[in-house]
Amino acid sequence: MFKRKRLTVLEADATSDWGVAESAHDGARLIVRVNQAFARARDRRGYPIRIGIAVPLVAPDADGLPRAAELEQLGAIEDRVVEDTQGLAVLAIVLTTGAMREFVLHAATSDWIEDFHRSLAQTVV
Fold first, then answer.
1. For residue 47, which of 83, 13, 82, 94 has the smallest C-alpha distance?
2. What's the pLDDT score for residue 2?
3. How far is the C-alpha of 47 from the C-alpha of 1, rounded, in Å?
4. Which residues contact residue 109 at a Cβ distance below 8 angstroms, ignoring those fewer than 6 apart?
5. What is the pLDDT of residue 106?
6. What pLDDT was estimated at residue 103?
7. In this predicted structure, what is the pLDDT of residue 3?
8. Helix or strand or coil: residue 96?
9. Residue-level pLDDT at 85
10. Which is the most buried residue in 32, 45, 52, 94, by most CB within 10 A?
């Protein structure tokens, strides 16, 4: 009856439409957060470059997932990634498993990635 308007990637980036699922990978728990607005964006094919930022956990629990104290640090890292890539890339997926968290972004161009990587590596230790 009513169709949901398909957003652009930039419009999707400004929304808060995330889904969460749990599964397993190589026998370990896997928590997946998906930017559902990005997944439905009508122009996402224009963002073909996939960027993965893997952050090893310092003190994971027995399931390889972060403990409460580390969740705050990971939240700060995610905020930094999103802020520093604003207008350049969109955070599409966040994976947590096997004593690491990976932020997966999609971008239209790659000319900024090296500088972004250098800056992030200097501040996230």
1. 13
2. 58
3. 30
4. 49, 88
5. 96
6. 97
7. 60
8. strand
9. 94
10. 94
pTM of the model: 0.88
DSSP 108: S
Q: How many residues does the chain have?
A: 125
Vertex 56 angle, CA 72 and 109, to 5°? 90
Strands laid side by side in the 49-56 sheet:
18-25, 28-35, 89-97, 100-107, 49-56
- Low-confidence stretches of the chain (pLDDT < 50) are none
pLDDT of residue 37: 87
32: Cβ contacts below 8 Å, ≥ 6 apart: 20, 21, 22, 23, 93, 94, 95, 96
Spatial CB neighbours of 116, under 8 Å, sequence gap ≥ 6: 84, 85, 88
Q: Give dist(CA 24, CA 119) in Å, integer.
A: 33
Angstrom distance (rounded) from CA 38 to CA 26: 27
d(C-alpha 34, C-alpha 14), whole Å: 14
